[in-house]
Amino acid sequence: MAKPLIGITTRNGKDSDGHPLTALQHSYINAIVQAGGLPILIPAILSEEDFLDLYSHLSGILFSGGGDVAKEHFSGSSHPRIGEVDEKRDFTELSLMRTAVDDGKPILGICRGAQVMNVALGGTLYTHIYDQLKGALDHAYPGDLRRTLVHHVNVDETTRSAEIFGETLLNVNSLHHQGLKDIAPSLRVAGHAPDGLVEIVEIPDHRYAVGVQWHPEWLTDQPSMQRLFKSFVDASGK
Prior knowledge:
Largest sheet: 9 strands, mixed
CATH topology: Rossmann fold
Number of strands: 13
Strand order of the largest sheet: 4-1-5-6-13-12-11-8-9
Structural class: alpha/beta
CATH architecture: 3-Layer(aba) Sandwich
CATH superfamily: Class I glutamine amidotransferase (GATase) domain
Order of helices and strands: EEEHEHEHEHEHEHEEEEEH
């Protein structure tokens, strides 16, 4: 039986000589392979015609983490901590997200990917959590703590996400300074951090559409995170 082809979005960067490159951490690839999928990288430099052609061959799409979404896409407020944005990546991912939602193609959004899901469907973001959410926890831990469990997430037991994870209390890492603010009308909130920040969203009537604010690809030693990737790949193969 053929393995599901899972597209994974990528970031644009430069090598040590300043030459442009397409980049993706191996952790995403390994998580998909471990779950039984075949990863296909989606460059963020293609024309719309070409990335939609590539999309048509995919069984599902994982929207990976990365830099900030440009505030212009959600009428966000300016903040000095907003990082350098990538207009080409924003355009590619927002278009792919809306297309996958409309087509019912399985979607998994991770960190930035969950934010792209919310923005693509009409939601907004905190451009810097700590100045805009009273009592916010520290969510922006440094990269060397990517495998460290720093807070928990309460999962709504009535949601599909609770079935996927098999638990209603998850211990997670945290590597972001932006977060979901106003939730898009078609999304359902499925989990919160202790400070009230939304950590899980899903589309109830979609074949499979889940967005998580942490980085489960670094926590695949946990059965609950293995179930997340396995459920996504399995849904993509149906």
